[in-house]
Amino acid sequence: MASRLLLEAASLCGLALGCAACKPAVEPLPAHVRVSIDGAVISPAKADGRQWDGMGTVPAGALTAIGDLLRTAHPAAAAASVAGFAAEAAGAGTEPPEPFGSAELFAGGRSLGRRALDRSGQRDTCTPGWKGPPTWRRVPLAPDVHVSGELIDRDLVSDDVIGRFAIHRDHLVEALRARTVYPVAVGNQAAGQVLFVWIEVWPE
Ligand SMILES: [Ca+2]
Ligand SMILES: [Ca+2]
Q1: CA of 195 to the centre of ligand 1 (A)
Q2: What is the model's pTM?
Q3: Architecture in CATH of 32-203
Q4: How far apart are CA 183 and CA 41, in angstroms?
């Protein structure tokens, strides 16, 4: 009797251990999603440290702090802090850009359309938000799905290129699982000063 009880206890313990070791089931991905680009965080300086508009450079300390933040593993906190530094630099007399641009979504080897990233009257900001927001509906989560975009600083005479960015499938899946407006860190992409792009991805 005692040995049977011991066996039962051992098997229950095994079950409990087995359950504790189980990983929660990963929710299956939907076939189609809705993708929006809500906004971006842009460096307060051009790649050479100069202001976007006006004369002079942005204080090196602000750019070093932003560089450090970009290396942290918490994109949401980093995006918020970088936005704060950019605003602070703007408040200290540097002139932020007038950012606008466009983005194109590709899936299955074809374009699902290009969207304007703009908001009329939006001036002097390193944290632009886009009217709409620009959205693609019924986007298949194909292996090659991605968004390719470009931001430009609107100037009176000749515009400044801010930078290009790419958002790939892994980013879209991360945003889908986050169920919130999600910052994609793009500061390490190509030569450009676009640091984060805020996206939303929802099942459809
Ligand atoms: Ca400019
Ligand atoms: Ca400006």
Answers
A1: 17
A2: 0.82
A3: Sandwich (2.60)
A4: 9
